Amino acid sequence: MAEMAASGESPEILFWVGCAGSFDDRYKAVTQAFVKILNKVGVSFAVLGPEEACTGDPARRAGNEFLFQMQAVANIQVMNGYNVKKVVTACPHCFNTIKNEYPALGGEYEVIHHSQFLQQLINEGKVALKGGGEFKGKKITFHDSCYLGRANDVYEAPREVIKALDVELVEMKRCRTKGLCCGAGGAQMFKEPEEGKKDINIERTEEALSTGASAIAVGCPFCLTMMSDGVKNKEREHDVKVYDLAEMIAKDMGI
Amino acid sequence: MSILPQLIFLLVFAVAGYILYKRVSYLRRNIFLGHKEDRNDMKEQRWKTMVLVALGQKKMFKRLGPAFLHLLIYVAFIVINLEVLEFIIDGLSGQHRIFAPFLGGVYAVAMNIFEFLAIAVLVSCFAFLIRRNIMKVDRLAMKELKGWPALDANLILIIEIVLMFAILTMNATDQILAERGVDKYLAVEGLFFSGLIQPLFQGMSEGALIFLERFAWWFHIVGILAFAIYVTYSKHLHIFLAFPNTWYSNLQPKGEMKNMSEVTNEVNMMLGIQTETSNDPPAEIGRFGAKDVNDLSWVNIMNAYSCTECGRCTAECPANITGKKLSPRKIMMDVRDRAEEVGKSIDSGGPGLEDGKSLLGDYTTKEEINACTSCNACVEACPVNIDPLSIILQMRRYVAMEESGSPAQWNAMFQNMETSFSPWKFAPTDRFNWADQLKNEEAK
């Protein structure tokens, strides 16, 4: 972003990478896949790089409002400084926070999740899918992320993206408004669960596996981690893969 | 003719009215133990929400069986209460079935509808008793319902059954008396359902029948008044509170947490940001987050009084499903129980909120609130738009900001965020490293 601003360019969108997209080895692949798509389509975009900080979502959900606002206000300073208008992110937690919670602190942007952005690109014909790629005809199930679904009522965009791959989309019993959490929201990603009889991601993975799907599609870095761990725990990683939507599209495009 | 029955009727009404007035004032005061929260915007959408969710029972229909049975009781409650209007006029004027001569054939149709609904209520209440006590449906047999909540639920069902039997007995005996030409009793043609139980009473003397008919009449009307008072002590308050509760629903996206503006000034100062500070003295900051009921907003407490403990929230809660202690329903019951404790203490001249107890600690534990994934499943599931998540998150704020008592792993996450602006301990300068690999690929 800094480079573009220095040369007087103003990109169409700011791609908000998020902490998982920057540091988590598995999710870095998603960031890369999404960037490849953007480059291929020729979208003018920028990233903040080292100027980006955590949105503060886990701090706020864990109760530390002060720390959340420190992160949020600093981020808003940076984004307003670059006159950012439109933000795209591959993380539903960042999406929710920037879209719904930054306005109260002076950060007003158009914020869209990468599933919505991908759907737009597909609808506009900018992403040309082969339709005969490696997913064709395969059974795929989609795991709703809470912060995309119930929190923001985005249920159809990710499904439209998956359907564009010419796959058989199979729903779990608990889907859309009734979707079961992967167990990582509300800052649970950063601590061990409370004592119970089972881990939430195992419960959800069992449900996903029971659909007979050969791949579980997600649109959230935390869900990706939780579902991947669940599949490993069930020793099914050889025949059931967990993908982010952007990875599936990039694979189909052959990039 | 004696006007004694009319006087007694008036007296019963006056006493019931006075008790209800006291009870409503008490509940209102308890709800306003909570702090101010302005929810009077978007009026059109609020009316719409109330009509759809409370009046139209929209969210009930996610579970069809119970929704249908509940709908029967709900419709019966509204429709049969029309008949109460006639009861009141009859009772005050000393008449009997005062509407019958005016409405003619329509009256008989109306009575048949009332009787059909009475039967529907009987069937539904029996079905609900079976679901609770014999089938022991999971969400209706959880440990937080042990004791009074379970008894309360059964009492309501039994009271409704008895009241419906009173209506049917009244109509059956009334019509036998009319057939026998007893003074004041009017024949209403073709009362189907009460006709079915008429044989039970056919052999009785006129005196016994009049006694039974009058007894059922008085039992029904006094029963309704007693029920109205009982409701104010019961989880059954939802029959009234569902309406304001849905009107004051949170209309923002469910994922949004309310900003704590009292923190923002300090944050801006720390970051060296000039803000247009108003000259108004800063609002008095009681406490960060919620430790007790008075730290919550009045909407949170109204939520608690609106809860009928159906447990749909808990049945959808991922933490509860996997055996953690958290139950969103229990959170709501805790808030209500604590508000009741404080309210009663204030009324008896006791210490009220200063009794050394608090919602968090004495009712709800940290283990419960820490298990929440903030997934909003409970909020989505509630048929009357109760928001347990808001209460959980406010308690977490108290723990984090006033006690620094969050789980150790969260404190470590806070520290990472303070020092490296990420919940994980990575150097901020490495944030762009993912791009190196892409650049390498391109270079090839």
TrEMBL record, chain A:
GO terms of molecular function: 4 iron, 4 sulfur cluster binding; metal ion binding; oxidoreductase activity
Species of provenance: Indibacter alkaliphilus (strain CCUG 57479 / KCTC 22604 / LW1)
Segment forming the signal sequence: none
One Pfam family in the UniProt entry: CCG
Annotated protein name in UniProt: Fe-S oxidoreductase, possible dehydrogenase subunit
Keywords: 4Fe-4S, Iron, Iron-sulfur, Metal-binding, Oxidoreductase
GO cellular component, one term: plasma membrane
Record keyword Secreted present: no
Residue ranges annotated for the Cysteine-rich domain, each copy included: 14-99, 140-227
InterPro entries named in the record: Cys_rich_dom (IPR004017), HdrC_iron-sulfur_subunit (IPR051460)
UniProtKB/TrEMBL annotation, chain B:
One GO CC term, this protein: plasma membrane
Positions of the 4Fe-4S ferredoxin-type domain: 298-329, 362-392
Keywords: 4Fe-4S, Iron, Iron-sulfur, Membrane, Metal-binding, Oxidoreductase, Transmembrane, Transmembrane helix
GO terms of molecular function: 4 iron, 4 sulfur cluster binding; metal ion binding; oxidoreductase activity
Record field: transmembrane: 6-21, 67-89, 109-130, 151-173, 185-203, 215-233
Entry-linked PROSITE patterns: 4FE4S_FER_1, 4FE4S_FER_2
Name of the protein: Iron-sulfur-binding reductase
Originating organism: Indibacter alkaliphilus (strain CCUG 57479 / KCTC 22604 / LW1)
